[in-house]
Specification:
The structure holds two protein chains of two kinds. Chain A has four domains: 4-129, Rossmann fold (3-Layer(aba) Sandwich), CATH 3.40.50; 144-249 and 411-482, FAD/NAD(P)-binding domain, CATH 3.50.50.60; 255-408, FAD/NAD(P)-binding domain, CATH 3.50.50.60; 489-545, 2-Layer Sandwich (Alpha-Beta Plaits). By secondary structure, chain A is an alpha/beta fold. In chain A, 30% of the residues lie in helices and 25% in strands. Chain A has a five-stranded parallel sheet, covered by helices on one side. A five-stranded parallel sheet of chain A has the order 16-23-17-18-19. A four-stranded parallel sheet of chain A has the order 2-1-3-4, sandwiched between helices. Chain B has three domains: 3-121 and 203-218 and 385-463, FAD/NAD(P)-binding domain (3-Layer(bba) Sandwich); 135-191, no CATH class; 223-382, 3-Layer(bba) Sandwich (FAD/NAD(P)-binding domain), CATH 3.50.50. Chain B has ten helices and 26 strands. In chain B, helix 6 (241-248) packs parallel to helix 7. The two termini of chain B are 29 Å apart. Classes of the chains: A alpha/beta, B alpha/beta. At the A-B interface, helix 2, helix 3, helix 6, helix 10 and helix 12 of A face helix 1, helix 2, helix 8 and helix 10 of B. The complex binds flavin-adenine dinucleotide (FAD) (2 copies) and iron/sulfur cluster (3 copies). One flavin-adenine dinucleotide binds next to helix 1, strand 4, strand 8, helix 6 and helix 7 of chain B.
Amino acid sequence: MARIGVFICHCGLNIAGTVDVGRVVEAIRGYPGVVFATDYRYMCSDPGQALIQRAIAEHELDGVVVAACSPAMHESTFRQAAAAAGLNPYRVEIANIREQVSWPHQGEPQRATEKAIETIASLVEKVRYDEALEPLTFPVTRRALVIGGGVAGLTAALEIARGGYPVLLVERAERLGGHVAQLSHLYPTLEGSEAHLAPLVEAVTSHPLIQVLTGAEVVGWEGQVGHFTVTISGLPSPVDVGAVILATGFELYAQQHLPEYGGGRYPDVVDGLQFEAMLKAGEIRRPSDGRPVREVVWVQCAGSRDPTLHRAYCSKICCMYVAKQAALYRRLVPEGQAYVFYIDVRAQGRGYEEFVRQVMEEYGVVYLRGKVSRLVERNGALEVWGVDTLSGQAVRLKADLVVLALAAVPAAGSEALARLMRVATDESGFFAEAHPKLRPVESFTAGVYLAGAAQFPRDIAESVAQAAGAAAKVLQLFARKEIVAEPTVATVDEELCAACGRCIEVCPYDARAMHPWKALATVNAALCQSCGACAVACPNKATTVKNLSPEQVLAMVEAML
Amino acid sequence: MAREGAGCGLTQGPKRVILPVVEHGFPLRALVVGAGIAGMQAALEIANAGYGVVLVERLPSIGGRMAQLSETFPTLDCAQCILTPRTVEVGHHPHIELLTYAEVEAIVPEGTGFRALIRRHPAYVNWDLCTGCGYCQEKCPTRVDAEFERKLGKRKAIYTLSPQAVPNKPVIDQEHCTFFQRGRCRACERFCPTGAIDYAQEAQLVEVEVGAVVLATGYELYDLSRMPEYGGGRIADVIDGLAFERLLSASGPTSGKVLRPSDGTVPREVVFIQCAGSREPERHLSYCSKICCMYAAKQAMLYRHRVHEGQAYVFYIDIRAAGKRYDEFTQRAMEDEHVVYLRGKVSRLVREDGKVIVLGADTLSGRQVEIAADMVVVAPALVPRPETRRLAGMLGLPTDEHGWLLPLEPNLHPVETIRPGVFLAGTVVGPMDIPETVAHASGAAAMVLSLFSRLTRAAEERDG
Ligand SMILES: Cc1cc2nc3c(=O)[nH]c(=O)nc-3n(C[C@H](O)[C@H](O)[C@H](O)COP(=O)(O)OP(=O)(O)OC[C@H]3O[C@@H](n4cnc5c(N)ncnc54)[C@H](O)[C@@H]3O)c2cc1C
Ligand SMILES: Cc1cc2nc3c(=O)[nH]c(=O)nc-3n(C[C@H](O)[C@H](O)[C@H](O)COP(=O)(O)OP(=O)(O)OC[C@H]3O[C@@H](n4cnc5c(N)ncnc54)[C@H](O)[C@@H]3O)c2cc1C
Ligand code: SF4
Ligand code: SF4
Ligand code: SF4
């Protein structure tokens, strides 16, 4: 006979404000197999956990149900607490009576209380059938792959190598440095870009543990955290790595997408990177006829912040580099005039606001608040048509040169790379972080981390900090010789399996395969995400997910009815 | 696990506890100062790699500012809900030695690392005996304004910051305790079931050797009292952004209802003022505080979720919404929640007939505007904490003219300092939102990990 304990959390008023916790305790006390039931204000707190641990010892519990918030919150908290008290952690289940009961049923205490009882009963049934499992362990290949050799990739590679682990750095272009290699100077200090980048590139290329492959790309991919097998163009055989950092950066939205600004037809309408090249050359001349330039107009948010026609998001870096470029232009051509069309000036960072103010006041750059509606060419001269929303007046400016601060979009090919590596992307095509706030450098795929503008446009300082953060994840992984994984994965009953292969077809994670010589389907436990698709598809009931057997599910459903 | 020792002669003082040194003859342990989201993130990264961490927090419990927030932009998930798993993990981590209600007294370089002296303030509660049952707080007769609630709520003289506090152990605020002030009461002692109250408890000095230091002491808000133009903190219904977070918070003093501090009524018109003290080199601070545009949009939105028929106004100079889904978020505030954005600066707030009259200019229409608001929420500049300067002084670290700690170099070395082995995490270097703080703190941890990993691997090779 089972000896199950049930612990019901009030979560302050989050649960107890709606659910009649006292009634739930009474009802569940009489449930078959339940030998102990109690409630507490905050079960996740130290005293709450101590209460569970005491009850495990005193009542010799062999299973525990904690009725509280979503298992995503505290399943591991309670499992660890139980393990410390000597109970197998896989015989601890969470009944979610907050997100699934008290929150959606606010104002219906009666219904909420009943539903809480049903939910708990169902989890009691689950625990009854739960096997005491041991976590799985896998070895880790302690070598990292970094994809992309911009400042983000370079920083990540260097930090991992400095930690003593070998790194393979794959860069698609012929040289390292990414976009920063194309910049003349950096905001807000206006120091030369090369002076900053060169030592980093030098440190990477001279590090004995870093192997740099330029002109190369990842073309083949399999495996899982701790052990990926990667095929790289130009390398004779696949390489094994334990972790991967995606640092493929960004590129600029093509002018062709912006017919309102000439769609790339006007030679004297350039993008921010082309203007950087001019600054680098130390000479600003019109591309069309090589004449010096007297009036330059910058158009911010070109393709950004425009959900109807272009990209809905703000590209984050352009406000600052426009201010920088306008200042550098004025420094280079003191008699020239610089105009900037903007919606909001986004200058957020140390010294950024002060820098923009200086650009306006000391460098004499004229800022016009408004959107440029069109660029037109009349008699060989460019005209910028816009509105100054501060004066409410239409403005028409003649310009020798127009610089478009184009939206930053994901690097070409990153969608394909994401598909190959099975890494999620967001609605704009940037790699998606595992949690928007608390897991900004992790992807949804274990062992794959994100650095720099590949996740979202950002400037150098932020890219570098994030890249170091991604390196921390890799160093953390490599500090352990093994990876511990959940044992609640799919298993195959060899007696029942007919080797029909249905499971292999349906598995979204490539975790299923045919045994190399036996007529039997196998499970790669490291890849299995316990989704259960194979268990459903199996016509012979040979495949089940550990601690989610058909009898178990049936019992759980019956308890709800 | 700690041994008592004679100390290293850093300062004179109470009895000392010396935390033992770990492994290989050098301390593979980091000192992290400040346990906000930055300090916790750095501590967890280091501890999860198997190295030791001593995490020092000035307050009785961890979480920092994030623990005070209601819901967070741009996804509006509840701050407490995403924070609690982290605080619990930190609280239980076998490799993290958590020293709350403590401050760093001194740090000196030693060998390849540092020796630090940490002062634990007396809680007047023996935390080893305390079970966190909360009876003492129930029975304590003395109510005082709660700092954590930005003075919009009360706490007792014996208190924890919140019911979810980690560690969930109370401290007695000597200044307000009836027993300490007048020699009688002892109610908490009488009711404490485990006899944990200890009025004779003394400060304790903990001495620790570490191989690296991470500073994560966070930020403060520019005080309303310094802004006479916004009432100088003397108008009850003019509050700052953190106070408004407490009003919005389900576990706050009003259980998440938006009520006016003056009379407890529901405000129908609320004005939010951005850039208060920021971007004002003449009168206040020159810099932009980076996060207030976003949190003002969030607060205006959340206000509308609580008070459906309410009207929110936001005064701004530029809307700075640069980040994944940030611009879209402010767009939603305007379009879905009908928040009225007014481009311009508020010149004055005056109290009149139970209302707060907001006088300002709309630079888009070129007109003066006057709004009779029920409540005004000011988004003050973020400023460094004054104590951070002292820490910087001990380590010889430079700050900028405002007191923010300076990284080694702003572009390519954003988490390192001029002192090898000392790193910076989160808002101690300047305003940041949570995601940037977390990434930055992981970055600081990377520096510690690569350092420790280098040492470990060298030792592994040496020892075969
Ligand atoms: C005009 C302009 C001016 C700027 N000025 C400044 C400034 O003054 N200060 C500042 O802080 N920031 C500035 N920035 C922003 C700066 O460029 C970025 O912060 C920085 O480049 C981000 O670095 P990253 O490594 O993430 O990406 P990137 O620099 O884009 O590097 C990504 C690298 O990955 C490679 N790659 C892409 N896909 C693949 C693939 N599939 N396989 C292999 N390799 C691949 C690319 O070839 C590239 O080398 C500016 C940006 C622009 C456009
Ligand atoms: C009103 C408001 C709303 C916000 N809303 C959001 C939001 O919705 N989304 C978002 O992403 N961000 C938001 N933020 C920003 C968020 O608060 C910060 O990004 C985050 O809290 C920074 O964390 P931190 O660890 O760097 O600093 P803190 O949270 O300040 O933590 C620092 C810690 O160090 C401790 N400490 C200080 N000095 C010492 C010392 N000398 N010794 C020991 N310990 C010390 C402090 O007690 C504190 O616990 C908001 C900010 C405000 C003001
Ligand atoms: S950073 Fe500035 S220019 Fe770029 S999209 Fe955002 S608001 Fe527009
Ligand atoms: S002795 Fe102090 S802390 Fe304790 S109950 Fe009395 S006033 Fe409160
Ligand atoms: S973030 Fe926005 S509100 Fe805050 S100081 Fe900067 S511009 Fe002003």
